[in-house]
Amino acid sequence: MDYLSVVVALVVTIASIAIIHLLTRANKPCPPNLPPGSLGLPVIGQSLALLRAMRGDGGSRWIRDRIDRYGPVSKLSLFGTPTVLLAGPAANKFTFFSSALSTRQPRSVQRILGEKSILDIHGADHRRIRGALLEFLRPDMLRTYVGRIDGEVRRHLEENWAGRPTVTVLPLMKQLTFDIISALLFGLERGAARDALADDFTRMLEGMWAIPANLPFTAFSRSLKASRRARRVLEGITRGKKASQLLEHGNGKASSNSNSDLITCLLSLTDDQGDQLLTDEEIVDNAMVALIAGHDTSSTLMTFMVRQLADDPVTLAAMVQEHEEIARNKTDGDQALTWEDLTKMKLTWRVAQETLRIVPPLFGNFRIALEDTEFDGYFIPKGWQVFWTANVTHMDASIFQEPAKFDPSRFESQTMSAIPPCSFVAFGGGPRICPGIEFSKIETLVTMHHLVRQFRWKLCCKENTFVRDPMPTPLHDLPIEIKQRTAP
Hints:
Blueprint: H1 3-26, H2 47-54, H3 60-70, E1 73-78, E2 81-86, H4 89-97, E3 101-103, H5 107-113, H6 124-136, H7 139-160, E4 166-168, H8 169-186, H9 192-206, H10 219-250, H11 262-268, H12 280-310, H13 313-328, H14 339-342, H15 346-358, E5 364-369, E6 373-375, E7 378-380, E8 385-389, H16 391-394, H17 413-416, H18 437-454, E9 455-459, E10 466-468, E11 472-474, E12 479-484
Parallel strand pairs: 2-8
Antiparallel strand pairs: 1-2, 3-5, 4-12, 5-8, 6-7, 9-12, 10-11
């Protein structure tokens, strides 16, 4: 099919859907007291406008302009579904804690990640799968991961940073976090299989937030194909580990490494009847989610920390002091980091939190109304999406004074106690708050420890801009000049 035929087919499809939509809507009574705003064109709605804005200034101005026009509650249509945009701490609290709402990803995300992921289930199934994931992320297990992550970071810096005059930060951070995730979540060693999975993963992300039209030449179509390839890899890993476990059990051996990686851990969990707690499909779908959650958010955070520290010598000096003191106080002769070392990196984590406040990796997220409900006097019909964004409260001057100013002291405990609940929402909130917060924290603290002790850097591009696609991406992926730091 040539390009013109594809365009004609697309136009005819959209026109047909629009006519059906208008005829159907004409026979339906309008619900009372809907929020202000417009649903826009059928199917398309405001999706293209939002995506253009995200790839322009990150989308923040588009959201602020909409709030200025309609107020903190408004209706629109995103990714083919009627949607209510909510803004502010009270709206965040309602979104995170209301029993009338459940998580709902755009159809494009559902098709790419799978129907059985923790992002799109609720009730008993959500509790079951979340509990299974938290088994891998127990505090005692997290302690054992510190040394393995430390080794991955050391190797990565030696191979990709040391001795080079310039590096491009974002792709290197993505490579690092992908290597960590591959080892700890999938037990996948370096080689051709890991490289192929990394390529498919990158293509998979391109169509996560897109109109779910599976037509040639679209980002969504490319992402679906990459998703199918990535899924086949994870299905193969799952089958292999399951066979190994069955062989061990058949030989009368107890598995000695049931928590060595996420898939092995999930396969080892059983219910009260001794049956596998999660189906293979649930394991693969949630491994896909973990791949994104553990890879993209951490790599984005660390990239923007590097960007901030390049122009912030005061904060950088304080961080260097913190990490040098930790290194000096290690008396066992082994410089590998431990869990106890990470608990001393309080300033570094405040710097990370302030970076997350100004540039949250997750622009926003969706819920779905399980029943008719209302917020702030406005009616939200059953089946409609609810859309919240982190940036609205993060950059609210009535909550965070001088919100554009980088100030890690905001996250000192006495300062945060004065902030309204559900104002800082970089990790979401409520029963569905990100289960991988501590894992991401370990990745970030270990990486920044070695980075600030080994290198100094300056930006190659002074323009301080970024776009979202859908994660924040700095100009040219943040190229920097680096120099090896001399020991104090």
